[in-house]
Amino acid sequence: MSVERANAETAAVPTPEIPGGYPDLTASQLDIIRARSTEAVVEPGVSLANAGHVDFDFILVEAGELEVVRFAAFGLPEQVIAIFGPGSFLGELDMLTGQAAMFSARMPAGGVIRRMPRPAFRQLMSEAPELSDVILKAFMARREYLRTSEAAQSIQIIGGELSGDTLGLRNWATRLSMPHTWLDVETDDGFRILKSFGLDVTDLPVVITPTAVLRNATPSVLADGLGLAYRSVPGKVYDVVVVGGGPAGLATAVYGASAS
What percent of the chain lies above the pLDDT cut of 70? Predict the structure, then answer.
């Protein structure tokens, strides 16, 4: 496999443009990541992560191109969300919040990556402040893109405009900066999608995620479906943390945990 490895001068291959989402890492920053990760050769077409996975690794692309893709499902066509080239790292705020992956990752032509397990990534974020700041800003830029682009269709909330339950779901998703779209069941599109799943108004509100259709959804049901519900971790003691409504609040929640 003849491929160019990452270096400080290697430009990422961003598709589409995400301002701030593709930072150029310095040679020393790349070395920090390499020291805490393991190299792996990826055969052509191999999936690196799938939508719905919770405990996925931080990935640095060394050689080749990695596609983040929404596979065709629930009436939505396949869509390549972004392409990462050598020197780019994969991920967005779900790496910090623990949310299940919304999209899948693959390398159609194969390549070389470095994997960093989640515990090592969290340690890096606390011990390398300059690199941590670069990564966090990129994650926030990518989340904003997901919220404001067609990628937000990957989570669809269907319900009535005047429904308190639907409004509660929408407010919850908005407070957490969750990429999503809302469809009023009273509109032709909303009613058509509801019927396409064999559902009716007794199932509202309905949430369509990349891996499931949730009936009579509540914030807690959706949180569980997205991997955001509380999961105890052996050896961890968690502080009480007030989470704000934006990405910074999401990051704060992660750093409320400490080893016992």
Answer: 82
